[in-house]
Amino acid sequence: MHSLTAFLAFFAVFINDASNQVTNTEYRLNYHVQPEQGWANDPNGPIHWNNQYHLFYQHYPNSSSPDWSDMHWGHVVSPDLVHWKYLPIALTPDQHYDKNGCWSGSAVDDNGTLTLIYTGYVQLNSSTSWQNQNIATSKDGVTFTKYEKNPVIKTWPIDGSDNFRDPNVWKHKEIWYMVVGNQNVNNRGRVVLYKSKDLRNWGYVGVLASSETLGTMWEMPDFFELDGKFVLIVNPQNLPRDDYNYVSLQSAGYFVGDYDYETNIFKHGPYHEVDLGHDFVETRTFFDQSTNRRMIFGWMGMWDAYFPEKNDGWAGAHTIPRELHLNENGKLTMTPVAELKLLRENQIYNSRILVSEQFDTGIPLNSTELFINIPIDKLKADKAGFTFTCMQNVAAGWGQFRVYYDKKREKIVSTRIKDQREADWKGASEISLHIYVDRSSIEIFVNGGITFTSRFYVPWLPTLTLFTENGQAEVDVQAYSLKNIWKN
Q1: Are residues 317 and 351 in the same domain?
Q2: In terms of residue numbers, what domain contains 418?
Q3: Are residues 296 and 346 in the same domain?
Q4: Element housing 8 (H / E)
Q5: How far is 281 from 40, CA to CA, in rounded Å?
Q6: Which residues are within 8 A (CB) of 70 and not within 5 positions of it... i.e. 6 or more apart?
Q7: Which segments constitute the Glycosyl hydrolase family 32 N-terminal domain (predicted)?
Q8: Which residues pair with 342 in a beta bridge?
Q9: Active-site residue, selected from the candidate residues 42, 166, 222, 438
Q10: Do 314 and 74 touch, CB atoms closer than 8 A?
Q11: Could you report the per-residue pLDDT of 307-331, keeping only the tens digit for each?
C-alpha cells in the first residue's frame, strides 16, 4: 500500500473515475492476472494449497480508480500457474479493525487450513491511521472467516510510526515468523520481526533490517532462504534517484546475506533492484514444496503511471510467475516458469536476419513469446536491438519503445519514449532475450539474469522491428503465438 502523501498525489492525477464494469477490452491482457473489473495492485499471499495455486491481490471492485479506504482482497486460482479463474472476493473491510481497508499480506498452510495474514487499516484522522495485523482462515479455499480475537498484533513498535503494514509469514521448525514494513521515529524505512507458536499470539523480536538512506518506508517485505543464502525484498518509498538506478517513483529491491535464527541477526550486502523496467513494484514470493521452487509475482504498475484502461472500467495487472535463483555473483535472477510453455499455440517465426538499420519482421506484438539472440562477436554495429511504436502517457505522446545492446558502453538499455533504463552488460558472448508480450505489457529476460518489465499502449497492433545503428548485426528470432486464457 501507499503512504497518505503518495496516495493524495496519485489520486490527484487520476480524478476521472470510471464505472466498475469493463466497457472496452482494448488493453485487456490475454494471459496475465488482472481484475475482472475495477482496480488491482499488490499481489498478496501466493501459495500452493490443496493441489492448486492461489493468488490474492489488492482490489477495489467498485471502480477502476483505487480507494485505499475500501480495499479488498481479490482472488484467483490455477491448477498450473498458467490457466487462472476468478473466485469470490476473499476479504472485505467489514470489521472495526479493518473498516477502511484490508491491506496487503501473505498466506500460509496451517495444518491444512489456508490462513491469510493481512493489515487492517483504519483512518483515525487526516494524518494518523491505525494499521494492525490480522488473520482469516478457510477450509475450502474460497470462503474466509476472520479470527474473532483480531487484531493479532494491535499496534506498531514503540520506536516506530503508524506506517506498519504488509505482513509476510513463514514457518521455521515449529515457530512462525513474521516480517512487517515499518518506519522508525525519523521516518526512515525498516523491517521489523515477530515470532509466534500459533499464528495468534505474537512476540516482538526487533528490527531485522533498516537504512537511513534507502527511502522513507519499506513496503511489502519478503524474507526467505534461497540457494544457501537469505534474501530480503523490500519496496522502498521516496528512494532518491541515482543516475539510472531507482528511476521509478517506487522500486522493488533486495539484500542478500546470512541470517541466524538463534540471534535473529541478518548480515547482508548492498541493495539491488529486482527488475529494471518502468512498471514493476510491490512483489510477493512463495515457496512451492511440490516442485521445490521459490517463485515471485509483481505488480505491473507504478503509482504515477498512465492507466488508459481506467476509462474502460479496470486497471492494474500482475507479472507472469517467475522462478527465483541466485547467480554466481550472488545476484537475484528471475526466469519465466516452465509451465508457461502451455500457452504456446504455434511457432510463427524462426529466422536468422542480417539487420542493417531497420528490418520489420511483421511479428505481431500481442500475446507473443519471443526469443532474440545477437552474437556479440559478430556484431558490427554500435547498437542492436528491437523497437515498436507506443504511448507512454498523454503528455509524452507517441514514440518508440526500444531495447538494445550498446556495444561501446557495454550496456543493456530499455527506453520507453524518453524514459530510459539501463544496466551494465560486460563479458557476455551473446545477447539472449526471452520476451513475453501481451496486449499492453512486455517482460524482457536478458540472458536469464536482468529483467525489464513495462506497460505500453497502442490502439493498433504493433509489430516487431529490429534495428542497428552504424553497422550490421546478425540476429536470430523465434516467435510463438500464445493463448488467451480468459476466453471460455
Answers
A1: no
A2: 342-482
A3: no
A4: helix 4-13
A5: 13
A6: 60, 62, 93, 100, 101
A7: 32-336
A8: none
A9: 42
A10: no
A11: 889 999 999 999 999 999 999 999 9
